[in-house]
Amino acid sequence: MKRLRLFEATGVEIEYMIVDRASLDLVPACDRLIETVAGEPVSEIERGAVSWSNELVLHVLELKTNGPAATLEGLGRAFHAEVLAANEALAGLETPGGEGALLLPGGVHPWMNPDRETVLWPHEYNEVYRTFDRIFGCSGHGWSNLQSTHVNLPFGDDQEFGRLHAAVRVVLPLIPALTAASPFLEGEVQPALDARLEAYRTNAHTIPEVAGLVVPEPVTTEEEYRERILQPLYRALEPHDPEGVLRHEWANARGAIARFERGAVEIRVIDAQECPSADLAVVSLIVAVVRALVEERWGPVRALDAMSTGALADLLRATSRDADEVVVRDRALLNALGLSRSEAAAGLIWQKLADRLAPDHVPDEYGAALEGIVARGPLARRMVRAHQGDESLTHLTGRLADCLVTDTLFLEAAEPS
C-alpha cells in the first residue's frame, strides 16, 4: 500500500471516560456499550468517518478517525455526533445511580481511586493488557486513569521521517502549556496542572527504556530508531515478557513514537479536552507548528536535532506542572519558533504561534475555541480557577460533561451579561 506523504492526512484519537449520570462516578461499561451498538463486545466499531474502540481499562471509550483524514475540517462535528450517539446508548445501561451512564471529557477522572476501581478490558487483546498489568501493575493513575488525544502524522520515507520526528520532538515540551487538562487526582488539587503527564512519566519506571525521558532521542532514520530506541526496549522487556507479547513498536511509551507499520509519528502528550471543537482546535495549531518547522519557516529543520533531550525533558516537566506560566529561556528553541527574544512565557509563545499560523492552518470552525483557549489558558487552569471560586468538584465535573454534549468551552464562571 502506498504511504501517505508529509501532511497529506492526519489521524486523531480521543479518549473519554464512562461515568454514572447521577453520581459521575466511573462505570466500567465499555464492553456493554459496544455490545449495545454492535451486538457483541468487539474491540472496534466502524461508524463512517469515526470509529469506536476499547482501551486498556473498561471505563474508557476511544473515538478515532476511521483511517487518516485528508482534512481536519468537519472532524469536530463528526466526533461530536459520535459522542451524542454514545451518550444515547449509554443512557439505557443499568448503572448504580439508576439513570444510565454518559461520557466525561478531560485528562483524568478527578476522584477515581485506581486501586479500587481499575477493571481491565476482559475481551479481545486481553493478553496484552494482562501482560502490561503483570509487569507494571496497571492499578495506578499513570495506567488506568488517563485520557488523551493522540495525533498521527504520516511520513513517506526516511527523509520525511527524520524531518517530521525532529520537529515533533521540539514542539512536544510546549504542548502541556496549551492542553493541560488534569489538575485533580483523588479529589485533590495537584501540584501539576497536567497530573496525567506527571503520572505517565513514571508509570514504567521499573523498566526505564519503555518511556525514556518521554521526549524522544534525536534520530533521523528508521534503522537508527530501531537501533537506539526499539531494540533496547525489547531487550529490557524480554526477561519480563519471554513470549514477546509486548514486542511491538506500540510498547514504546515516549511522548511521541514512530509507528513504522502505519508510516506515522504519533503524538501522545495531549490531554483530552472538554469538547471536540477544543480538541480539534489544539490539534490544528500543534500540527500547524510542526508543519512550519518541517517546512523550515524559521530555520533549518536539521538544527532541531541538536537540542538536548535532557533540556527538552526538563521543559516538559515544567510545563506539565505550570503549563502556560512557565518562562522559556532556551534561546535555540525560541529562535527555532521564530521568536527573537531571550525569554517568553509558554502561553505567550502559543499566542504568537496562533497569531501567525491559525489564519492559514486552523479551520474557521475551530477558531473561536482556539481563541478562547489561548486567551484564558489551558482547561486545567480554568478548572482550578472555578474550584478556587468555591465551585464544588462534583458540580465542576458535571459542567465538563455538559460541555461535551454542547460542544462548548469550559469557562471559569458564567459570562457576565
Task: Produce the secondary structure layout.
Blueprint: E1 11-20, H1 30-38, E2 44-47, E3 50-54, E4 60-65, H2 75-90, E5 101-104, H3 114-117, H4 126-136, H5 141-144, E6 148-154, H6 158-171, H7 175-179, E7 184-185, E8 188-189, H8 195-201, H9 222-237, E9 256-259, E10 264-271, H10 276-294, H11 309-322, E11 327-328, H12 331-336, E12 344-345, H13 346-361, H14 367-376, H15 379-388, H16 393-406
Antiparallel strand pairs: 1-4, 1-5, 1-6, 2-3, 3-4, 6-10, 7-8, 9-10, 11-12
Features:
417 residues, alpha+beta, Creatine Kinase, Chain A, domain 2, eight-stranded antiparallel beta sheet, 16 helices, globular
In total, how many beta strands?
12
Q: Helix and strand succession?
A: EHEEEHEHHHEHHEEHHEEHHEHEHHHH
- Mean pLDDT reading: 96
By helix and strand content, what is the structural category?
Answer: alpha+beta
Helical amount: 40-55%
Tally of individual helices: 16
In quaternary terms, these chains amount to single chain
Q: Tell me what the CATH architecture of the domain at 119-403 is.
A: 2-Layer Sandwich
Radius of gyration based on Cα positions: 20 Å
Low-confidence stretches: none
Terminal CA distance = 56 Å
Taken as a percent bin, the fraction of beta residues is 5-15%
CATH class of the domain at 119-403: Alpha Beta
Shape: globular
**What is the makeup of the main sheet?**
8 strands, antiparallel
Fill in the CATH topology of the domain at 119-403.
Creatine Kinase, Chain A, domain 2
